[in-house]
Amino acid sequence: MTRRQMAMDNFMKGYNCSQSIVLAFADMLPIDEATLLRLSSSFGGGMGRLREVCGSVSGMFMVIGLLYGYDGPETGQVKADHYARVQELAHRFEEQHGSIVCRELLGLSVRHDVPVPEARTAEYYKKRPCPEIIGDAAQILEEYIMEGNKELPAGNVKCNG
């Protein structure tokens, strides 16, 4: 199964957008799934249904932070290189969807939506483009990781296969 399909399936199981992405890449990350899911739980609905940055985009950023990020008080090139990765992924996503902002992707005029998520019914899934958006984010991220010039730093990856 592709990571794209895994991420989409995760969403259909009830995980939020961000959780769907990080869970699809969990086998590559140096952190346990339960912690990944808790860490990403705040980013669904464009950050707690604030309808800001799409949760799938936030999920991509979390994954690359765990794969390529820095862990010191960096101020120079290391930080700049990492922010360039973030911007590259955002650009690729934006090229496909026109925005990285949840409310814009969903065609909503509301900012700071009510905190109670909608029930995940068949009707909910029919009116939401989220599964495809999540799939696209997972595919963008996988392609980015697989590119030859994106070698993973030694020791940053847990590989289960």
Helix and strand arrangement:
Elements: H1 3-13, H2 17-24, H3 33-40, H4 44-47, H5 55-68, H6 77-97, H7 102-106, H8 122-127, H9 130-146
Helix pairs in contact: 1-2, 1-9, 2-3, 2-5, 2-9, 5-6, 5-9, 6-9
Could you write a compact summary of the structure shown?
The chain is mostly helical.
Can you describe this structure?
This protein is mostly helical and 161 residues long. The chain has one domain. It is 58% helix and 0% strand. The chain is built from nine helices and no strands. Helix 2 packs antiparallel against helix 3 and helix 5 runs antiparallel to helix 6. The two termini are 14 Å apart.
H and E order: HHHHHHHHH
SS-based class? mainly alpha
Low-confidence region ranges:
154-161
Shape designation: globular
The helix fraction, in percent, is 55-70%
Key traits:
mainly alpha, 161 residues, disordered C terminus, globular
